[in-house]
Amino acid sequence: MINYKFKAKDKEETIDAMSLKRALRSFETKAVGLKEVFVEWISRKGNPSSKMVKLPLKRRKNKW
What we know:
Shape: globular
Strand content: 35-45%
Distance between the termini: 32 Å
Strand order of the largest sheet: 2-1-3-4
């Protein structure tokens, strides 16, 4: 499991999940009203990564 750190304006939370997509889904249900969030994690190989993600996360069939 990978430890994902979510940072928003007033909220900071860590979630353990197998993938970024699953971690985003679980964070999205808790964080209502946020437009974007900054995510940091360390990969299984030990490389630090980060990404800015816009919320709400749109699934493939809802994009069109």
